[in-house]
Specification:
Length: 278
């Protein structure tokens, strides 16, 4: 039984701005939350501040992002579950806004901006905000520039998106379990996080939704120093094999073909052929 409104899981691997992210979450939330930080093979310097809403799992040896998220989900007590990267800033009341529009079979993402983590402020970049992404024909999430700039779509504050970035996502705790996330055996430790989430959701009858009533800002990639998790070459074969599976049937609970999703968002960049021939 849930004992708080929201559990926020923060997988962290050699993160420079973890404390800023944790403080931001605890400060900006308006509901009853807990923040679960998984220190994956390191201790931050300085140590994280103490807070009754903060729980810390420390691993002496790094086991990867999917394992970290799963470890947090096991002990999470929230009705809702949110994952965030360890270098993100949030709007005031992000938690209550996301919970207000989240059905039982939805995965919800906030509007995304770019973050300067040292100044802890939004980056002025014409690429942002980002609301929509699509899946390319090789099933990678790509920013959907045409949709993001469409003046009519800007008026839709709750809307469907074909895909998204894995930096922040939100759903009920029960739905996380129903989707059997995060699957290390199939996907490996890190690759294709939102490919797994989005396709499991869409192709079993759920919806991936962007909520533009709130936002988060993610570390803009212009910074020069290293951060967080990296893409291991050892996981590449698993990632490629997972893509091939979705072209047929990628998951045992899947009830809809991949072609159904492409048709729903047609026309989709990089996909060739007539809609009715997919």
């Amino acid at each position: 039984m849930a004992t708080c409104d929201l559990s926020v899981i923060v997988p962290a691997r050699n993160e420079l701005f973890l404390q800023k992210t944790v403080t931001d979450l605890l400060t900006k939330a308006e509901g009853d939350i807990e923040v679960i930080v998984i220190l994956d093979g390191y201790w931050p310097t300085p140590q994280l501040i103490e807070d009754t809403r903060l729980k810390i799992i420390h691993r002496g040896k790094p086991l990867g992002m999917r394992a970290a998220i799963n470890a947090g989900a096991v002990i999470a007590k929230g009705k809702f579950l949110m994952k965030t990267d360890a270098h993100c800033m949030f709007a005031n009341g992000f938690d209550t806004v996301l919970a207000a529009d989240c059905s039982d079979n939805w995965v919800v993402v906030p509007r995304r901006y770019a973050l300067d983590p040292e100044k802890w402020e939004l980056v002025d970049n014409p690429k942002y905000p980002i609301d929509y992404m699509y899946l390319s024909q090789d099933l990678h999430g790509v920013v959907w520039n045409e949709k993001n700039k469409d003046p009519e779509l800007k008026k839709k504050l709750i809307d469907e998106t074909m895909s998204n970035q894995g930096s922040v996502w939100f759903m009920t705790h029960d739905y996380f379990n129903e989707l059997e996330l995060m699957d290390e055996k199939t996907y490996g430790t890190f690759w294709n996080e939102f490919q797994e989430i989005g396709l499991k959701c869409w192709l079993s009858g759920g919806r991936v939704v962007v909520n533009k009533n709130t936002w988060y800002a993610h570390w803009h990639k212009s910074s020069d120093y290293g951060r967080g998790y990296s893409l291991s070459r050892d996981d590449q074969p698993k990632a490629l094999a997972a893509v091939d599976k979705w072209k047929n049937k990628g998951w045992h609970k899947q009830t809809l073909p991949l072609s159904w999703l492409v048709k729903r968002f047609w026309p989709v960049p990089t996909w060739v052929g007539e809609k009715n021939s997919l």
